[in-house]
Amino acid sequence: MTASTQLVRFMALDMHKHYVMVGAVNKAQEILLRPRKLTWPEFDRWQQQHVGPDDASVIEASGNAWHVYDQLSARGAAVSVANPLLVKWIGSAPVKTDPHDTLKLARLLAVGLLPTVWVPPAPVRALRTLIGQRRRWIKQRTQTRNRLQGLLQDHNLLPPGGDLFAPAQRDWWQGLAVSPAERLLVAQDLLALDHLGPLVNQIETAIQMESTCEPWASEVPYLIQQTGIGLLTTMTLLAAIGDISRFEHPSQLVGYAGLGARVHSSGETHTTGSITKQGRRELRAAMVEAAWVAVQHNAFWKAKFGRLVCHIGDPKAIVAIARQMLVSVWYLWHNRTVDRHSDPLAIAQKLWTWAEQGGKAMRHGLSCSHFVRFQLDQLGIGHELTELHRGSHLYRLPPAGSNPSLPAVS
Q1: Residue 304: Cβ within 10 Å count
Q2: 90: helix, strand or coil
Q3: How many other C-beta atoms lie within 10 A of the C-beta of residue 116?
Q4: Range of weakest confidence among 31-40, 94-103, 357-366
Q5: Three-class SS state of 152
Q6: What is the pLDDT of residues 307-340, one digit of tens each?
Q7: Which of 211, 238, 271 is a domain's end point?
Q8: Fewest 10 Å CB contacts: which of 20, 75, 187, 241?
Q9: Which helix (DSSP H) or strand (DSSP E) does residue 55 occupy?
Q10: Other C-beta atoms within 10 Å of 226: how many?
Q11: pLDDT in tens, 343-379
Q12: What is the DSSP code (8-state) at residue 169?
């Protein structure tokens, strides 16, 4: 062990909105740096002068954690990101102050008792940003549509046929016999929908472009092949999970999604309850949504769902299907294999939809036919497919193995 290794400081950062508390101890738990309060501009200057390769640092997972993580890592420090829920449980004490919390984190780090979280690399963070923004726009659009539909229910008004929120229906909405105040709210909600539509489209276009860029391009085919999982769901799973190799067993992935059952086992008592819901919410929601699609369009999952419904009802049954599908996702992605319950022709149809939605730019200049053949070759299936029906059109597929590869885009 070198002298520099022996002199490692174990430094903790208790981060807040406008300031950070910094403190450090050594391996013997002796205080090397008494907790010090720094504003963020002060911290930017301080870390450049005082943080180096001999420091081991810990920060709590929070909104600005990754920015600070990158700063400290650039200085050569070994940085850990603490799980805030588990840290509070391990270090619970009747005294809670910023200096006390800072030293508590540093001491847990020094003795190796710090529960940490996985640090997503930059591409995962970027994709999570896009997925999160799309989710927010979709939520706002849904709330706006619900308000408008609620107005119709309040007045027992029957809407016209077709898409209620299509541009062609604007005159009907504006001609409703409602109060002036309600008419104003209708006009504002319609205006909000006009703005939200393009915003959602821009985000979805960006996500589609990401799907054929590394590190995602080589992963997407193994997820999108499964029934019920389209491109947006695939990208949501990739963003939430990041790196499948960090889950050594599918049960770990199920727990990460919060789809595992609560268990109480003590002595002769062993009971299970509802799912924990302690995990990534967007992953759990995406799998439940995918499960509803799968039980409607796939004979295998439909039969499973039918058997479960008889015993536990629809809500619990669909959660059980979502959990089993997530296990399937682990096997497909982790082992890079093909779903044995899927039909190559059905997978080719999904790949064509992906190709059409993303456009030529996303396909890096390939035609839809060549793009589909390339993805089928990646999966190692569909060698016998020579044509594909899309509506009234028939498209020829290139022979297997004859397709040029996609350009390497990062």
Answers
A1: 18
A2: helix
A3: 15
A4: 94-103
A5: helix
A6: 999 988 999 999 999 999 999 999 999 999 998 8
A7: 211
A8: 187
A9: strand 55-60
A10: 26
A11: 899 999 999 999 999 999 999 999 999 999 999 999 9
A12: G
- For the chain, the residue count is 410
pTM score, two decimals? 0.87
Query: Is 248 part of any domain?
Result: yes
Evaluate whether 67 touches 78 at the Cβ level (below 8 Å).
Answer: no
Asked whether the beta carbons of 163 and 197 are under 8 A apart, the reply is no
- Residue 241 belongs to some domain of the structure: yes
The tally of domains found in the chain comes to: 4
Residues 132, 103 within the same domain: no
| Residue found by looking up tokens 């002769």 in the block | 268
- Tell me whether residue 68 is in a domain: yes
Instruction: Say if residue 387 is exposed, middle or buried (CB neighbours under 10 Å; 0-12, 13-18, 19+).
Output: exposed
Encoding tokens for residue 282? 């967007």
Structural domain range at position 71: 3-110
DSSP summary character for residue 168: G
Summarize pLDDT for 52-93 with one digit per residue, the tens.
999 999 998 887 899 999 999 999 999 999 987 777 655 555
Q: Closest by alpha carbon to 38, among 78, 11, 9, 10?
A: 11
Please spell the DSSP secondary structure of 234-262, one letter per residue: HHHHHHHH--GGG-SSHHHHHHHTT-SEE
Q: For residue 215, is the peptide bond before it cis, meaning its omega torsion is within 30 degrees of 0?
A: yes
Contact by Cβ (8 Å): 273, 261: yes
One-letter amino acid for residue 354 of the chain: W
